[in-house]
Each structure stands twice: as C-alpha cells, then as structure tokens.
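Contributing new complexes? Match this layout with zinc ion.
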Amino acid sequence: MTSTLVTGIAELVTNDPAVGDGSPLGVLRGAAVVAEDGRVRWTGPAAAAPAADRRVDVGGRAVVPGFVDSHSHLVFAGDRAAEFAARMAGQPYDGGGIATTVAATRRAGAAELGGLAAARVAEMRAQGTTTVEVKSGYGLTVEHEVASLTAAAAVTSETTFLGAHVVPPGAAREEYLALVTGEMLRACAPLARWIDVFCEPGSARAFDGDEARAVLTAGRAAGLGLRVHGNQLGPGPGVQLAVELGAASVDHCTHLSDADVAALADGDTVATLLPGVEFATRSPYPDGRGLLDAGVTVALATDCNPGTCYSSSMPLMIALAVREMHLTPAEALWAATAGGARALRRTDVGTLAVGARADLAVLAAPSSVHLAYRPGVPIASALEL
Ligand SMILES: N=CN[C@@H](CCC(=O)O)C(=O)O
Ligand SMILES: [Zn+2]
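Output block (do not edit by hand):
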C-alpha cells in the first residue's frame, strides 16, 4: 500500500485530546500526517515526520477532520424556490411543501435520483464533507422508498429509512402507519442502517409521540438504529422519546423545555442542531450555548433538503452556530466533525487520531477559526490523497 506524507500544515486539528495542546480539538502546529491504506498512521511535528512513498505539501494551510454531516435528505427531485421566496415574503413553514417534492421524486426514475444524489455528495465533498448520512422520505410508497434508499446506498453507508416523514397526500393516517411499520419497513430495512421519524404533534402531516414510538420500536425490531426529527416547529415529545428509546440522535431541538435539556444531559442521545433550517425558514435558533453549558453532546449538520435548507455547506453551519447560537469557533468545529461522528455512533471518522480514516479537509486559511470568520468564502475542501 502507498503511504502519503501530508506536510506544510500550519494548524492540524486532530480532535484527539491526547495530542497537541490538550484541548478537545487536539491542535498541532507546524504538523504533518502520514496516511496509508485509507487510515491515519502518524501525526506530529513536521520536523519529526517519518518517510513515506508520496508527499503532499499543503503550503501553510490548516487541516481538519473532514466534516461529518449526520443529517441530510439528498435524494429528491425538483426544488421549492417559489416556496422559499413566498416564505421570505412572510409565509410560515409548515411542512406542506413536502408533498411537492414527493410528487417530483415519484416522477423521477431511479437513474435520475441516483445522479442527483451523487452530484449533491460531490458538492458536499468540494466543501470538506467526507461522511454524510442520507435519508429517504420523499417517496412514501414501498416502491419509491426502496428507490430512494437504493440511490442513498450508492453514495453512503449511512442510510436512513424515513418513510415516517409525513402521511402522504391521499393516504389514511392509520393505514399509512401500518404500511411504514410493516411492508415498507420490511422492504427498506435491508437498505438502511437507521430509521427516523418526523415527530411533531402540532403538524397535521407529521407524527405524534405514540405514532413515533410505534415507528421507532418497529424499526428497532427490524435491526435499525434510531434517529428522530424532534421539537422543530414547537415543543413536543420528540426529544424525550429519543432519549428514552436510546436514539443515536435527536435533530432540530429548536423548542426545548428544561426537562428536555435535562434528559439530553443525562442520556446517550446527541442533540443535532441544524442552523441552516432556522436561517432559511427565518425562525428562532436553538439554544446551542445552553445545551453545551448543560453538558449535552451537540452535533451540527446541514439537513440539506429542498424545503427547509437547500444548503450543503458545513462551513456555513459552523458560521451560523458561532454567530447565532453562541458556540465558540472551536466548539462549532468539534460539533461539525466529532459531534457528527457521535451522532452516527462512529469512532473512525470526525477525528484524525491514529487509526481513524484518513478523511482530511484542507482549508485555504492558516487556522480553523477562518471557517466562521470568513462566512460564505469557499475555503474548505476534502483533500484527495
Ligand atoms: N422536518 C422535516 N423534514 C425536513 C424538511 C422537509 C421538507 O420541507 O422538504 C427537515 O428536516 O427540515
Ligand atoms: Zn431533516
């Protein structure tokens, strides 16, 4: 196997607190990395780097773990630019537009869906994302959910069955729930690692606490890990249900009670914040600072989807988390890398500790603070080794 020495690294963020400056980011300056067989084999001061077969000099740039985007809906056709424009003119977001995307996605063939998902993953990689979770949820029939998960599985191993996104137009709620927890789950489980549910009792289209529990327990019985869309549009049972059932992550967390925060702090469920959603729906941001201060593990993700956030940019999420949710630049970077890995229960990504995957993102900047300091400037990209 060919080994590669990456050198000329002004600042290396390892997310390994055992190395470097002792902070959670494990920062080394004037550093180098040796990668071999897709894994990190060595990190340390450039002057002490071992020999390798190839050498890549990044010329004084910062290198960070590739971003782990633990929440996306990349398999969809069409877009909802008109809905976005109407929202910016004052229309509220209520999830009604999901039906528009379901219709477009059902019309698209498997090849088109696969091409769209692959192009979006490439767009993410060009911005530094090296691991992405991809959900179904715009098919909402057995056939179209299978097609969506097939497209997702072609681009990532982190696939999520989201048949319980909404009750599709024209379907009866009870019958649809029986389908999602029965035939659709049986068809989709072999293609998925996770199951997710949009738990939002205030929405006529999404699912209440009892329905979400039924979806999650059926998914668990089918061997899937659990994820929840919770507390996005208003207060609700999503967060506490996720913690009670041992979900890996509960995502959005925009409207939390003190009891929700306490449950997250005591539990093993990551709170994944999606600040691009609040940006694009002009909604109040979650209290990211409060969650961290309470001891909750926080991840950041894009939620890239055509309705609430059509952005694939993890650097934008970092900038929003710093500006709008009062995370420090270091906390936001950790949440976008190691936090995302925790939300996916992965120990091989989101870190550049020895043995981890050699998923590196290089920044056209001397320090990772520039991710938040230079919003909108495309400084991050995955380093091709
Ligand atoms: N909230 C539920 N689902 C997506 C939005 C879906 C859509 O509007 O198309 C979300 O995570 O924000
Ligand atoms: Zn989502």
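Reviewers usually confirm one structural detail per submission. For this one: Residues 95, 97-98, 101, 198, 229, 232, 277, 303, 305-308 surround N-(iminomethyl)-L-glutamic acid (ligand 1) (CB under 6 Å).
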